[in-house]
Amino acid sequence: MYGQTCLWNNQAGFAIDVAFDHMRAVNTMTNLPLRHRSHLHQLEAESIEIIREVAAEFRNPVMLYSIGKDSAVMLHLAIKAFYPSKPPFPLLHIDTTWKFQEMIKFRDATAKRLGLELLVHTNEEARAAGINPFDHGASNYTNIMKTEALKQALNKFGFDAAFGGARRDEEKSRAKERIFSFRTSNHGWDPKVQRPELWRLFNTRIAPGESIRVFPLSNWTEADIWQYIAQESIPIVPLYYAALRPVVERRGQFIMVDDTRFKFLPGEAVQQRLVRFRTLGCYPLTAAVESDADTLDKIIDEMLAARTSERSGRLIDHDESGAMEKKKREGYF
Amino acid sequence: MSALLCPEASPAQRSLLRVLTCGSVDDGKSTLIGRLLFDTHSVPDDQIITLAHDSKKYGTTGADMDFALLVDGLEAEREQGITIDVAYRFMGTKARKFIIADTPGHEQYTRNMVTGASGATLAILLVDARKGLQVQTRRHAFICALLGIKHIVLAVNKIDLMGYSQSVFETITSEFAAFSSRFNYQSVVAIPLSARFGDNVATSSAAMPWYQGPTLLAHLEAVETAADLAQLPFRMAVQWVNRPNLDFRGFSGTVGSGFVRPGDKVTVAGSGVTARVARIVSYDGDLPEAIAGDAITLVLDTEIDASRGDVLAAPADLPEVSEQFAADIVWMSDVPMLPGRSYLFRVGTRTVAGTITKLKYQTDVNSFEHIASNSLALNEIATVNISLSAAVAFDPYDANKRTGAFIMIDRVNNATLAAGMIRFGLRRSTNVHRQVLTVDKAARTALNGHKPAILWFTGLSGSGKSTIANIVEAKLHAAGAHTYMLDGDNVRHGLNRDLGFTDTDRVENIRRVAEVAKLFADAGLIVLVSFISPFRAERQMARELAGPGQFFEVFVDTPIDICRQRDPKGLYKKADAGQIANFTGITSPYEPPEAPEFHVLTAQNTPEQTAQVIIAGLGGLFAGPDAGA
User: Residues of A with CB below 8 A from B6's CB?
Assistant: First the structure.
């Protein structure tokens, strides 16, 4: 009952052809459809159901858009979920002002291409106070410019539900995260009050002031994300592709010099390296990996062969064991 | 073209299997999952390095890697050395992607296991070869059957510690076959294995030449579980109505079962309105067909009245539509379930209020015995009758998991309270139709010259409810209003003489009084209800029964020390002496109102002053010529 032909030779839009091939395949003896659906198809359907559920049940939802590959997939799923309507919620980007320039360019182009409302929020008091990732420590900086800024934005706009692109495979403490993650009125996450999630019968009820973070990609893995990006031809920030980029080597990692605010340590010098990023964030806190993967196929090859997790490139996770869980309790996404 | 995208590994052709693991840390469950992740290369190198480090620090396997640490989660659990929640793990092979729901095995975590089981197609039941079948194995097998899991793997672990003995394995498997025959499983496969050393997990064991069956991983890859929801009658709960403009109206939802093609007829369950599918609209173009599990948008050939909560179904094979059904529920809250209390029920995409009208029996999860009971505590399982405030469309859970499942929700704090499986509809509800009455509430209101209302006095025993209510009634009567007083003690001498003071009976007590108050209000009266009514949920039920604008909650707020001093009926003395069980404020809780219409502080005002304030606040009942509106 599985498809017999390999249609991948057809380079353009290849996987969609295959999906359709299965949809049209009917057992002529019984007139019943063939049952097979690929795991990506099933993940897509589950995510779309979750996204629609939020639009139907919440008064004022928002989609957190972090510009990375997971956000790209989540946004694509939202477009599919409501087609031919547009997603009935805006996008929100928490801009720390330290993102890669290419990310900002990509963000604005994406919102324009899709005709979606994009809200951008920055913790202005902290910016005015000069909080930056070089002088204030990764953990401290992240708390102020990301977690605090997010809370400010959620309060300012009164959002009662916020989509995030987190996945359960990213980090151990995420494995137990709910798809609908309940937050108290001060955005805290308490493992004790999280609700059991039975079947697909989500309990979306909240009291005034409370909110829910929703993770439609909970059951996706990094491999699923990349394979789906390839299948659906989803645009991604060029930083994911290998190119010669100006970097400095710091504690064994390559940090890109993205603008003139970069603070060099004694003895550091810019070098041109063929690098790419597995994960995107604030440029001083995001390590590049040496790679010559300059196409999606090569990235997928590299990812499937790679034996390190993507978060190893995020400097904020290395502070201490259980770091992610602490950040979550404080309201980090 | 990438080598990795060739047919066997092609992402578009891998299927997805959701697996539940049942067992405890002692059985080696975490070790088995860790081993599966490790052997399928689902663990990145940096996590392996962390594992090697953690194994030294927290491990229980000496110099070896402790695979259990790969799947530990929250800090507290790591310290306690046990898993207390549902964790989801992911692994993939060339044939399948697996989502593993990892749940704890002890009885106090039954709710977690039920949560994991609700989404799983296959369950791995772990048994420690040294101990054989345990009480918990019976419990796990029962819960899997209750939640409709049809495929079971009996993983006989730690067989290395029993010398890889064939007879140990066979004794366990034949015992399991004997007692599990009562469950309606489709496949049961027993595998002898050692999670710690990897025997028969991903690779066949050289130590057990007598075992000819598949390894655990080979079985997981091959087992045919396509649940065939696609072959059941078509069902789709409408999730969202898609209206980008006046020319387009689509019904978005996930196909729960069956399949649908353009040209097919679909019927709105309940209303019976039927239309044909004109298009299945998707971002990738119109689809020729959609099957169970697909998230779709249907455009019909005629405009029909359907919205979120409705179920679209195959006209030749419609779901049942009823307000009443029998169901099994698993209670998941620390607050007990009380028959008669008003809860929310989510069935499909519809959420309605309802009550458990009858607790038929509780089932002991270890012995499967039926036990008489009048309430349910955390993790208890029971067979009940349910009555909802509106009819819903459903199928029996055994016939269709997607349309036969429901959850229960607390009306006050919104907690998820229970998982439910509908067993069958109670047909009698379809034969009891409401009479349409020609003299209605508006007509009576016009005759009376005032609107009806329910004044609900709540507070501790001795707080002064009856005293204040009596003065208010006298004043209303003097003003020409038609009134009636329902007093707690008096009603208990008559209508409710069969009820005691347990939480269950208190809930039923209030339910009956609320219904009677509603009837009197329908008759046009201003009803004064003076009951301790300690629970928020019941007062909320009375409020909703009364309808908007007709319910006035009067919280008679008197500190318990003053009530005790007054003690007009000598009850506090008795309660303090231990002669009265379940006395509100002492041995039974009182939940104060959060937003009462009147909050009366008796310590600061006389009953006469209080009554004046209440009367002043009721002016609207007598207002103007539109009093009947």
Answer: 6, 8
Q: Are B510 and B540 in contact (CB under 8 A)?
A: no
Smallest CA-to-CA distance from B347 within B283, B386, B392 is with B392
DSSP B494-510: TTTTT--SSHHHHHHHH
- Nearest Cα neighbor of B227 from B396, B98, B401, B349 is B401
The model's pLDDT over B299-322, given as tens digits with 9 standing for 90+, comes to 999 989 899 999 999 999 999 999
Neighbours of B433 (CB within 10 A): 7
- Pick from B462, B511, B520, B534: nearest CA to B486: B520
Residue B564 near residue B571, CB atoms below 8 Å: no
Give the pLDDT confidence score for residue B395 in this predicted structure: 94
Place of tokens 């309990």: A203
User: B5 contacts in A (CB within 8 Å)?
Assistant: 8, 297, 300
Element (H, E) at A50: helix A39-57
B354 close to B394: Cβ distance less than 8 angstroms = no
ipTM over 0.85: no
B283·A206 Cβ contact <8 A: no
Torsion angle (degrees, nearest 10) of CA A231, A236, A240, A246 = 160
Q: Is a pLDDT exceeding 70 seen at residue B558? A: yes
Contact between A321 and B74 (Cβ < 8 Å):
no
Task: Quote the CA–CA distance of B56 and B58 in Å, as a whole number.
Answer: 6
User: What b-and-e string marks burial along B368-396, b requiring 16 or more CB atoms within 10 Å of the CB?
Assistant: eeeeebebbeebbbbbbbbebeebbbbbb
Domains of chain B in sequence order: 3-222 (3.40.50.300), 229-313 (2.40.30.10), 327-427 (2.40.30.10), 441-628 (3.40.50.300)
| Structure confidence by residue, pLDDT tens digits, A162-205 | 999 999 888 776 777 889 998 888 888 876 778 889 999 999 99
B560: exposed, middle or buried (Cβ count in 10 Å: 0-12, 13-18, 19+): middle
Whole-number Å distance between alpha carbons of B84 and B105: 9
| Structure tokens, B199 | 């025997």
Q: What is the DSSP pairing of strand B248-257 with strand B240-245?
A: antiparallel
Whether A84 contacts chain B with CB within 8 A: yes
- How confident is residue B535, by pLDDT bands cut at 50, 70 and 90? confident
pLDDT band at B432 (very low <50, low <70, confident <90, very high): very low
Give pLDDT tens digits for B574-587.
Answer: 888 888 877 888 88
**Which residues fall within 8 angstroms of residue B315, CB to CB, at 6 or more apart?**
B265, B266, B267, B274
CB pair distance less than 8 Å for A42 and B295: no
The distance in angstroms from the start CA to the end CA of chain B is 73
Q: What is the pLDDT of residue A20?
A: 33
Tell me how far apart the alpha carbons of residues A99 and B296 are, in angstroms, rounded to a whole number.
Answer: 36
Distance CA(B355)–CA(B162), nearest Å, equals 52
In a mutational test of the A interface, the residue from B407, B410, B411, B417 whose CB has the highest number of chain A CBs within 10 Å is B407
User: How many Å apart are CA B327 and CA B397, to the nearest integer?
Assistant: 9
Collapse the DSSP code of B99 into the 3-class scheme (helix H, G, I; strand E, B; otherwise coil) and give the result: strand
**Backbone angles phi and psi of B627, in degrees to 5:** -55, -20
Contact B292, A41 (CB under 8 A): no
Using a CB-CB distance cutoff of 8 angstroms, which residues of chain B are in contact with residue A206?
Answer: 414
Q: Can you give the pLDDT at residue B84?
A: 57
**What are the backbone angles phi and psi of residue B363, rounded to the nearest 5°?**
-115, 125
Specify the range with the lowest mean pLDDT, choosing from B48-57, B237-246, B287-296, B361-370: B48-57
Label the pairing between strands B96-102 and B87-92: antiparallel
- Out of B15, B46, B88, the one facing A312 most closely (by C-beta) is B46
